[in-house]
Task: inverse folding
């Protein structure tokens, strides 16, 4: 009986030792606020573990709140990664309060990394959608690998190697799409939410403007008019350029005279008008109300004086003003893509009145499975969506 008891005790010790060893070799529990960050973390952790997300894929982090069902996941995590208050807003405070009970663990905000290369919003402040730059995504992977190496030193080399491989592959994918986008340098497009700037800068293309920097804040009447004016200017420039080409081709004085005439007009246009597609918000805001449309001029002046009203009131005015301009926009229509995130396509009343082609452009990766290849699938899907719209306009 004594021998049997000793045998039981030996098995218990062995089992306890095995459990302890397994716990010690367990990968760190990693949580990221949004899918794109989790996708980068998944690439860094390949072969070792998998991260979790605070927000469901496709949920806008602007104005998001922590769900009670995710609170325990955050509390149990060894590392929590976020972009920063400029993107996740008050969600960061909720996470920090929750993590306060976990000694030695904090929320790592990647936007503060000094190695990050930022683009500035026209109104000031850094654009927080940093994962849409391959270079910044590589920096994020490096930062995540450094954190995981401290938590899990036995696998530090694996994390570092995965981060380097991710950065190389991300840069190659960006280069591939930059080459493919060269044929769309003069394309006209606008965005609902100013979230695609890192991607469009890398591709060498620039929007006529964006309705809003924050999708939770409706476009004001004044800015909606500025976007409409930019579209109208593009339509006029495109229309004039078409006439120049027609005169150059059909001039009875021959090709040489026609080419010279068209060339002179094009040089004048290049000096006076600038690029067809503009240079983002700064030029759009500088253009003001130059759409030449007298149809709703009186109402525009009234609305300009009342722009200090709340955002909901501005949106109502903007939508009413949009309907007044629909007939003119339809008459002078030129192909323009309007890109919006999936969850914003249902809120495009202003966009629909602009007579532009609505198209999905998702920087958050809704519907993409989380795994080591997820960031690349997200980037490729975004690029394909935009390219498809550009190609369809060129075929008109």
Result:
């Amino acid at each position: 009986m004594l021998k049997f008891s000793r045998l039981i005790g030996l098995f218990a010790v062995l089992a306890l030792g095995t459990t302890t060893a397994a716990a010690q070799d367990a990968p760190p529990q990693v949580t990221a606020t949004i899918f794109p960050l989790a996708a980068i973390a998944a690439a860094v952790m390949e072969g070792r573990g998998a991260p979790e997300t605070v927000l469901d894929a496709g949920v806008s982090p602007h104005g998001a709140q922590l769900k009670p069902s995710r609170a325990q996941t955050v509390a149990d995590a060894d590392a929590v990664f976020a972009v920063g208050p400029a993107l996740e807003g008050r969600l960061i405070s909720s996470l920090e309060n929750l993590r306060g009970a976990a000694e030695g663990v904090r929320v790592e905000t990647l936007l503060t990394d000094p190695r990050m290369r930022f683009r500035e919003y026209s109104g000031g402040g850094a654009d927080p959608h940093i994962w849409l730059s391959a270079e910044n995504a590589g920096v994020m992977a490096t930062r995540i690998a450094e954190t995981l190496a401290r938590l899990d030193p036995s696998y530090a080399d694996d994390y570092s190697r995965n981060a380097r491989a991710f950065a190389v592959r991300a840069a190659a994918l960006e280069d591939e799409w930059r080459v493919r986008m060269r044929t769309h340098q003069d394309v006209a497009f606008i965005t609902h939410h100013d979230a695609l700037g890192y991607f469009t800068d890398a591709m060498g293309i620039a929007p006529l403007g964006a309705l809003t920097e924050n999708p939770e804040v409706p476009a004001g009447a004044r800015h909606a008019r500025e976007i409409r004016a930019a579209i109208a200017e593009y339509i006029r420039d495109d229309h004039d350029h078409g006439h120049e080409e027609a005169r150059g081709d059909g001039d009875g004085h021959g090709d040489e005279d026609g080419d010279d005439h068209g060339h002179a007009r094009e040089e004048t246009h290049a000096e006076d008008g600038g690029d067809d597609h503009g240079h983002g918000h700064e030029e759009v805001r500088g253009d003001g109300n130059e759409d030449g449309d007298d149809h709703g001029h009186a109402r525009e002046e009234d609305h300009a004086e009342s722009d200090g009203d709340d955002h909901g009131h501005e949106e109502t005015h903007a939508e009413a003003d949009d309907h007044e301009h629909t007939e003119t926009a339809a008459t002078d229509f030129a192909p323009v893509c309007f890109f919006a995130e999936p969850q914003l396509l249902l809120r495009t009343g202003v966009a629909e009145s602009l007579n532009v082609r609505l198209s999905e452009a998702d920087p958050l990766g809704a519907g993409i499975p989380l795994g080591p290849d997820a960031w690349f699938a997200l980037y490729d899907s975004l690029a394909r969506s935009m390219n498809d719209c550009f190609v369809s306009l060129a075929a008109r």
Remarks:
- The radius of gyration is 27 Å.
